């Protein structure tokens, strides 16, 4: 059998993989790429982009609801079927456009998940392929849950493609995805339950702001079951029964659909990394500062799947650039990650950048903590928004911002200003001297610091 050979073989067609492939092609290398799913990756096809499109409909409902008593006469209704059709206008063309772009660049495409045969040899589509460098950019996949009946669980893919919103939904896991989907479903008319092993949602975010968001979510009609362990899921003719244990007691709920939103893990199971001598752990492929495998110099990993990465799309592109540079020019560029903001697209948004309150108290002797509800500020009042809060952490000695946590309308946008301020070492005085448009959410930053 003839062995196909390439300079670079990229596994995964998301942002990181595409960045590597395009740069290496332009650098004069021969490149192949494989993906067992639609080309274009999770974010564009079945993640952040389609999620944000669906969110748009619920944003209208949220704003109109707050203004009902003020200036909105008739509340809008959400047509989920039409919203899904609108979303498909963004996602349907992604795989074809991605493949067309890559093919025109000269990238050889494979439509299967490859697996390693040795350190620089892969098997894909029944063919044996050798590559001087292999790049793993497979992203994340839903975490498998180990209880009886777990095969009945739906995933985020299923939620984003729901043709009709069921009357009752249950989400196992109160992280980013679970909370975002719970908010969407509740505003679309579903009765929603969120169950989690922890004592609150969104464990990585500020406790005080999460508590506010949780209480507001309850007012929306979302039921939370915390400190609970799911034991089994059973399917009947039209519904599912979820059995769980809480405080030593067995309980159960009946629901139309159950979604696994208990987090995602590096997508490595199908690659046969042991045969490729590629070291990995629960956080992903083990890499050095050049994003090169610590055990196989022929392999690099970038994006969510590396154990170095934070699972955010903008960082995936940055890592893809570093990997392509090191493949072309040798290991001369190290990954340098700035302070990265993150946001939960619930309504209101919850956003964070920099250190948490607990972290700053452990690292700094003197910290100024500015925490306040801003629901009586102009921007919140003009929308009649019930929640608008912040917590800003400042190094007292240098007057520099070291952490920012926001809950409110457009917090996912405002947090970017704080990220820019932290990454550029700005002081509160620097921010105060900056002229912003008024009245704008960005201008509120000056009052927060």
Offer a few descriptive terms.
single chain, 449 residues, alpha/beta, seven-stranded mixed sheet, 14 helices
Major sheet summary line = 7 strands, mixed
Q: Kindly, what is the distance between the CA atoms of the first and last residues, rounded to a whole number of angstroms? A: 67 Å
Low-confidence stretches: none
Number of strands: 23
Radius of gyration: 24 Å
Helix content: 25-40%
Class from secondary-structure proportions: alpha/beta
Shape: globular
* Beta-strand content: 25-35%
Can you offer a commentary on this structure?
There is one protein chain. With about 450 residues, this protein is α/β, with parallel strands linked by helices. Helices cover about 30% and strands about 25% of the residues. The protein has helices at about 15-25, 40-45, 50-65, 80-90, 95-105, 155-160, 175-185, 205-220, 315-330, 355-365, 380-385, 410-425, 430-435, 445-449, and strands at about 5-10, 30-35, 110, 115-120, 120-125, 125-135, 140, 170, 190-195, 225, 230-235, 240-245, 250-255, 255-260, 265, 280, 285, 300, 340-345, 350-355, 365-375, 390-395, 400-410. Strands 1, 2, 3, 4, 5, 6 and 18 form a 7-stranded mixed β-sheet that branches. Helix 3 (about 50-65) runs antiparallel to helix 4. The longest helix has 19 residues, at about 50-65. The chain is globular, with a radius of gyration of 24 Å. The model has no long low-confidence stretch (mean pLDDT about 95).
